[in-house]
Every structure is written in C-alpha cells, then in structure tokens.
Amino acid sequence: MILNRYTSKRFAERGATALIIVVFSILLLMTISVSFMRLVVQDQQNTNDDELSRGAYDSALAGVEDGKRVLQACIGGTGVPATTACAAIAANQCNTVHADKILSAGDSSVNTDEVMIQNSTGTTGGFDQAYSCVEIERNTPDYEGTISNDSSTVIPLQTTSPFTQVTISWFKNPGPGTSYSLNTSPAPSLPTYAKWAPANKVRPPLIRAQLIQFNSSSFKVADFDQSADSGTLYFYPSSLGATTASFASDARQSKSNNLLVPVKCTTAIGTQYICSVTVNLPLPVGATTPSQRQAYLRLTSLYGDTDFTVSPVGTELQDVEPAIDSTGRAADVYRRVRSRVQLQSPAETELFPRATVDITHDFCKDFGVTDTRFIASPSGCNFNKP
C-alpha cells in the first residue's frame, strides 16, 4: 500500500497542535490556581494584620484609661495619695501607672514591665495584648475641641505663668480642591443660615468669643459690669480681616454698630486652621498684674460646626486638657495613641450655664405693673403658639 506523504504530515501537525494546547491549558490552570492561593493567603494575612492592629489600638486605649485614673488621683484627689500620683506624672517615664500604684499597692516605681491586658494561647501560637508605655503631660500648649452649630464650650484659662493674649484658631483646612467662600466686603453682614455658604462652597462659621475674668485675690459682683471683667467679640471670617483684636473694644458697650470683627482667613496649603486671631485681654478690675487674673473663655459657633484651638501666648495651659501618650501591643504589632482628656466636675453644668433663657415657642410677657399692684393682660397670653 502506498500512503500519501502529504496526508501523513497533516496528521502529525494536528497531534503537535493538540499537545501544545494541552500544555498551555495546564499552565494557565496552574497560574490561576497559584494566583488564587496567593490572594487567599494575602487576604488572610491582611485580616490577621487588621486584627492585631485593632488589638494593639485597644491596648493603647486601656493605657489611656489607666492614665486617666492617675490624673484623677493627682488633680482630683481620689484613689491613691495625690502626692504619689503627681510624682509619677512629673517623673515623665513610661512606667507612670506602676509608679502610681493604682494597679497594686505593692507595685514599685522601679517596675518597668508592660501591663498585660489579655493573654491567650492556642495551636497556632499565643496572642496577647498589653500596653508598655504611658506618659502624661499636665501642661499643654493649647486647648483642642469641636463645637457644633449654635453650641458653646467654656475653657478655663488656667496657665503656668501670667499671660495677656490668647490665640483662637478655628475651622480645619479641608485641603486642596476645596472651593471656599470668604467675605471680601469691608462692612460684613449677617445673612440667613441657608445663605451663609453658597452652593458647592465651604465657609468657616462665625465665632462668638466671650471673656469672663476677675481679680483672683478679691472681687465684687458689680465688677462684672465693668468692661475690663467681661467682653464679647464676634469674629467674622474674611479674606480682608485683621489678625489681632482686643476684648477692650467690645462694641456692645459703645454707640457703635460695628459688632462684627472681620478676621483674616487664609486657605494656603499647609495651614492647619483657616482662621486665626490673637486677642488682647485687659487687666481685671482692681488687678495690677496679669498674675492676678482668673479667666474663662466661652466660644460659640454660629452658622456651622467647627474644630478649634485656644492657645495662651507665651505660656501653657495647666490641668485644663492634659495629654496622655500610650503605646499598646498585640503580639508583635504596636500602636501609639495620644489623647487629650478633661477633668469634669459633676457640677459643671451649674458652674457654666449655657443660656439664660432657652425657649421653643413664644416667650409670653404681657402684663402691667403700678406702684401698688400687678395687672395681668386682659386678653391673656398664649405661649403655645409658634
């Protein structure tokens, strides 16, 4: 039998092609399998890392809470002796909690061991949480906070040394790409809440700053009628405003109608807060030096929420908003947390009233008074009407 050599060649080529297809298919399946396994391993690793990171963060927060107990003992005089707690803070060492002996009466100031929060073991190894370092700063350069719209906060201006100025900064810079709206008129006005910030633009709120101060050695209630012991300024965000002001220039105590104080605001890159103003404080009534000053600053945000800082110029705040620095650990992952805390009094709401009159509907005041009697309104007064 005679075979066609061309037909035999085609059969051979078909066999080689099928073999190549099979080889490449196997390689493709292997590549997909290896890639899938790699994704699974990476996802598992990321999950473990996230879990450890969260555990380390929680451990650091536990250190912050124990740091609060040390502060409470030092400033508030509760728990262990205040002298022991204050000495532990003043040492500025990582073993603050051990030195304070809040964990155990038999603890030692030379104990530098980490504080174990949780320990567990298993077939895959141990997982433990602890915090290794807690440091506390009673003196801080500023007071940091957040005010919601139409709300207030009171900051005690308690410092380590006398001061005559405070710097108020507000509204954190959102960063590049943000469209701002700042007043450019030399005579600013107050629009409605809905028209304060134009559509698709960001505008810092207006800040009302109120100073309450008195002579720490002696004072009379009547002193608060004097301009030196109280003052209110309305800081209006503007691109043409000033960077300084004075509580002595409170326009409410004069015939001037210029209640708004334009403050220069800048959106330059690298600026943490858009608006900032340094305010001069007059001496309290009867005081001869700034060291006799006892002062409080009340800030109210109008037309929006804002972050803010208050910094006394040339000194630091003492026991107003201490900072606690805590380092937590979970297995071999570490997280470091720095928190600002405040020592709150149960009677704080009584010491710092937020409003004189707070109403929802009309305030009904319809009556008459003579030398001898009180005359009620003959038509009555419906205070339930909106």
Task: Describe what this molecule looks like in 3D.
The structure is a single chain. This protein folds into 2 domains: 10-139; 142-315, no CATH class. Helix 1 (5-76) crosses helix 2. With 386 residues, the chain is α+β, with helices and mostly antiparallel strands. Helix content is 23%, strand content 31%. The strands form 4 sheets. A 5-stranded mixed beta sheet has the order 3-12-5-10-8, with no helix packed on it. It contains 4 helices and 16 strands. The termini are far apart.
What tags apply to this protein structure?
386 residues, alpha+beta, 2 domains, 4 helices, 16 strands, extended
Following the backbone from N to C, one meets helices and strands in this order, namely HHHEEEEEEEEEEEEEEHEE
Number of helices: 4
Radius of gyration, in Å, reads 34 Å
Structural class designation? alpha+beta
DSSP E strands, number? 16
Beta content comes to 25-35%
Which term fits the overall shape? extended
> The biggest beta sheet, please?
5 strands, mixed
Through-space gap between termini: 113 Å
Helix content range of the residues, please?
A: 10-25%
Number of domains: 2
Please give the order of strands in the largest beta sheet: 3-12-5-10-8
| Overall pLDDT level | 82
Provide the low-confidence segments as ranges. none
